[in-house]
Amino acid sequence: MNNDMDSICIDIIEQLLILLKNDPEHALITYGSLSEKINRKIGPRNLDYPLGIVSDVCKELGMPLLSTIVVNKKSYMPGEGYFTYYYPDVKETEYDNIFKRNLKEVREYQHWDEFAEAMGIKI
Length: 123
Fold this sequence. Notes:
Layout (H helix, E strand, L loop, with lengths): L2 H20 L6 E2 H7 L10 H13 L9 E2 L8 H7 L8 H14 L3 H7 L5
Helix pairs in contact: 1-3
């Protein structure tokens, strides 16, 4: 990873944590809106890589996958790569159940402030 990607990942984490802090019950954002919020440092179709990095960090730390709240504007679910990467043996018919479970975990997680502090983010 390079400094630009580090910066993009931090910006993404910051925006997602702000969203969760402000309205945890309804926290969802489209790829396009997230791209706008990080000043289009990366286009919506290219967010898969930095969102993967963010979720890898979450997974390593035993936290819910923060990228769960980033969704496609038509399906209102994460992109297919989210499922094929983190749930490679799961059938597409299970994606909706996985998404609902993971979304609930992200919204109910009580330690996002600690994660923000560890990442050097003030929310």
